[in-house]
Write a structure and sequence with these properties.
Largest sheet: 6 strands, mixed
Shape: elongated
Length: 599
């Protein structure tokens, strides 16, 4: 059975559910839809983007209270605001606008935090908003706001659970479709790249601060829509459903279903809601007293789930279901992306002048000078602790020199950041491979082409970016073929051998169409034949006019490949020249070439 057939069956069952089920179960399905809408935002925010938030229930409250106030107290509001209460649909737009502004403000403050400080920050403002709902005059206090009017669709009021049911699930299904489209796009790959580390993503040209803000705002907007639907379904709101405990439950749903799985949001919301209801009915009778015993069961259940199925229930269901998935088709006939004009051969592409980097009292680089020219390979060698990796980071924008200058194509880039360097045509690999192991080889390489596209979030969500997407994927496929990994196009990157992963990083770097390529130990882990193929690729790139900086510990590979070699020790350059000059330099022979053990 194909995914399309399963979807058709699922939609058919959804359509007939209100006609066949008692009202109680229809209400339960309504709550599952509302909860899944919030959990879907957390899939993007937490599961895909790696940003844990306990405050989503507060955004649900913003949506609910905005429509409650506007639609029940429009007469008491100023005229410029009161007109929004004329219809729940206008109140929805007002709620989304308010949530957008609030989420942007909270995101600007919270997303600067990292580690455990980020979720603590979301707890702080989540609690603040919860208490504001019960304390601010005009919001009804803890008794709430009653008599919220029903939503009208084509003049028909949705007063019953089986009426609003279809609207709730329509919102959810549209959100699922848009989220899947977004994640299957250039913007989506940028979001997924966040889990690979900000250094890697920024080096590929991804604006990680923007990507983090995008998913934070989108998750908040989906929570707001859920709150709007909830208010008009209940016809009453009070602060209770928007507290920290509910925020934790939304996270539970996300983890249960599969934190990185779009359809996992629906599975998690369904399992959590049904089990909670079942346990609330069963446990008091078994124990002879009432209480929140279901939370105790869920607590132990979550620990067991994290031990047995950390990726959630959706991957388990996907393995059990006989679903035939076709490999993603790549249109190799798509119009090629524009190419960068290479600098003239021999022109200085990157120049580092007196670059010094201090870490407290430690001088990692001391007055380092390097020039890398178009159409040449410069090798940078030295023993452990020589400062090569630090220098690599200074000239690639990852780190900022304490003093000195770095110029890329005549532009000063010291302290400008890796993304600025990537825009100017610098691309790099990493000493410790940085790939997204669960993404395909094709998608990993397509991240490298990020700056060669321009379609944004809205275009991706509504599939208006398909022509550009086809061109980006075709370029990624060409680079994969170029480095000899064409047979692994649709394999997970994490399934490749270490040597192949290093080659894959080169393909990703080449997808950005660079004029200068920085390679950090590209031959490490490669077999003899693979090293020969890598050498042929680098010679071809040099012939095309690309500048290449090579940090490598394999001296045979370096001496047979480089046009010039620079040698470092204790943060300083002690020699520079052709391979033959370096091999015959007495100081180098005595201090390094007899036992180079690359860092």
């Amino acid at each position: 059975m194909s995914p399309r057939h399963i979807l058709v069956v699922f939609l058919a069952l959804l359509a007939v559910a209100p006609l066949a089920l008692p009202p109680f179960y229809v209400t339960l399905l309504n709550y599952i839809g509302l909860y899944a809408l919030v959990a879907l935002g957390l899939v993007m925010l937490t599961g895909v983007g790696g940003l844990t938030s306990f405050g989503q229930a507060a955004f649900v409250g913003v949506g609910a209270y905005t429509t409650a106030v506007l639609t029940t107290r429009a007469d008491a509001l100023p005229a410029w605001l009161g007109w929004l209460g004329a219809s729940p649909w206008l109140a929805l737009l007002a709620g989304l606008a308010l949530t957008l502004a609030l989420a942007y403000l909270l995101g600007a403050i919270t997303l600067r935090l990292s580690g455990h400080f980020l979720p603590l920050g979301t707890i702080a403002w989540g609690l603040s908003l919860y208490y504001a709902f019960g304390s601010v005059e005009g919001l009804g206090g803890h008794t709430g706001i009653p008599d919220i009017p029903p939503i009208r669709v084509f003049g028909t009021p949705l007063t019953q659970g089986d009426h609003i049911y279809y609207l709730i699930w329509a919102f959810l299904l549209v959100a699922v479709w848009c989220t899947q489209n977004l994640l299957d796009s250039r913007e989506g790959r940028a979001i997924r790249a966040l889990k690979g580390g900000r250094v890697m993503a920024e080096s590929m040209g991804v604006d990680t601060a923007r990507s983090r803000m995008v998913i934070f705002v989108l998750a908040a907007l989906q929570a707001c829509a859920s709150g709007w639907l909830y208010a008009h379904m209940q016809r009453f709101v009070n602060p209770h459903p928007f507290g920290l405990q509910m925020g934790i439950e939304y996270l539970f749903m996300t983890v249960i279903g599969g934190a990185a799985q779009v359809w996992g949001a629906l599975v998690g919301a369904g399992v959590f809601t049904v089990l909670k209801q079942w346990l609330q009915d069963l446990l008091p009778g078994l124990l002879g007293q009432s209480g929140n015993f279901e939370i105790i069961v869920f607590g132990f259940g979550m620990v067991l789930l994290l031990h047995r199925a950390r990726r959630g229930l959706w991957p388990v269901l996907a393995r059990l279901a006989p679903v035939r998935r076709k490999p993603r088709q790549v249109d190799m006939q798509a119009e090629p992306l524009p190419r960068r004009t290479m600098p003239p051969r021999g022109e200085v592409v990157l120049k580092a002048v007196d670059v010094t980097r201090r870490f407290g009292g430690l001088v990692a680089n001391n007055a380092m000078n390097l020039e890398i020219r178009a159409g040449e390979i410069l090798a940078l060698i030295g023993p452990n602790g020589a400062g090569k990796s630090t220098m690599f980071n200074q000239i690639s924008g990852v780190d900022t020199p304490t003093s000195g200058r770095v110029a890329l194509l005549g532009h000063e880039v010291a302290g400008a950041g890796a993304r600025r360097c990537a825009r100017l045509g610098l691309s790099r690999t990493f000493q410790h491979v940085r790939l997204l192991g669960r993404m395909s080889v094709l998608e990993n390489v397509a991240i490298g082409a990020h700056l060669r596209g321009h379609r944004g979030v809205m275009a991706a969500s509504w599939r208006l970016d398909r022509a550009e997407e086809a061109r980006l994927l075709a370029e990624a496929a060409r680079q994969i073929e170029r480095v000899g990994l064409g047979g692994h196009l649709h394999d997970e990157a994490g399934s490749l051998a270490l040597g192949q992963q290093r080659i894959l990083e080169i393909a990703r770097a080449l997808a950005s169409d660079p004029c200068i390529l920085l390679l950090d130990e590209p031959a490490a882990g490669l077999r003899y034949q693979e090293k020969r193929e890598l050498g042929e690729l680098l010679r071809k790139l040099r012939a095309e006019g690309m500048a290449i900086l090579l940090v490598e510990h394999d001296m045979d590979f370096v001496m047979g490949m480089a046009d010039r070699v620079a040698v470092m020790d204790f943060g300083e350059k002690i020699a520079e020249g052709s391979p033959s000059e370096i091999q015959n330099n007495p100081a180098v022979l005595e201090a390094y070439l007899g036992g180079v053990d690359e860092e």
